[in-house]
Amino acid sequence: MRIGQIFGKHRFFLGLLCLVGVNSVSHATGDTGGTSWHQQIEQGLKGHLSHYLNQMAQDMEISDYQIEVDISYLDKRLEFAACPQPVQIETLTSLDLGRNHIKVACKTKSWALNVPVELNIKAPVVVLNQPVPKDIELQARHLDLEIHNLADLRSGYFLKKENVIGKQSKRGLAGQTVLNGRLVLPALLVKKGDRVIISASKGPMSVKMPGEALNDGREGRQIRVKNLRSERIIRATVEESGVVSVNF
């Protein structure tokens, strides 16, 4: 899955037992500057997780986005002492966009909480600007960008129009539909009877030869191709318009 062209879920990792400094504290007095334990948790989690969400958006090559770290209700009736050192944030599993649980602890005061958090990135994704019927080849005139919460798009999405142009609708779709890989087929790049270039490679060696497509072919799909030099029929992968590849 190519970053920035994705239509699936995104995951990232927090380091085990990451120390998050919330206040400048005096170990001699235990002074926390008046910050309560729940404020330490909120500030620590938001600062730490915001860094990871920003990094995630950059890795996805999203330039226009908004991040949100929503921390579920913390029961302030709990009588925890403020932590005289940076709280520890601990996770043993990968984190998704959406709902997660993170352990936050203060070792010196012997308290720990499993805190529910929502991690969101809002960014433009590709949508239809009009209804389209089944089997239509999608063009730029059919598409717009619209801001959505990526955490809500569990079926996937496209971030760039160019990743959709040329693909074909699998069924009739309504306007404003967020497009994903389940709703479109790869672009039809080769038609039955087309002359194609067969690119055959093995390690650093590669050869090219003429061929004839015996089936229609979509990007990334295998089709039957006749080698016009040897007359052999082979299976090859459609790479681009008029080009198929095979390993030998």
Automatic annotation (TrEMBL):
GO terms for biological process: bacterial-type flagellum assembly. Residues 1-28 form the signal peptide. Transmembrane segments: none annotated. Pfam families: ChapFlgA. Residues 124-246 form the Flagella basal body P-ring formation protein FlgA SAF domain. It is found in: Periplasm. InterPro entries: Flagellar_FlgA, SAF_FlgA. GO terms for cellular component: periplasmic space. The keyword DNA damage does not apply. Keywords: Bacterial flagellum biogenesis, Cell projection, Cilium, Flagellum, Periplasm, Signal. The keyword Metal-binding does not apply. Involved in the assembly process of the P-ring formation. It may associate with FlgF on the rod constituting a structure essential for the P-ring assembly or may act as a modulator protein for the P-ring assembly. Belongs to the FlgA family. This is Flagella basal body P-ring formation protein FlgA. It comes from Bermanella marisrubri.
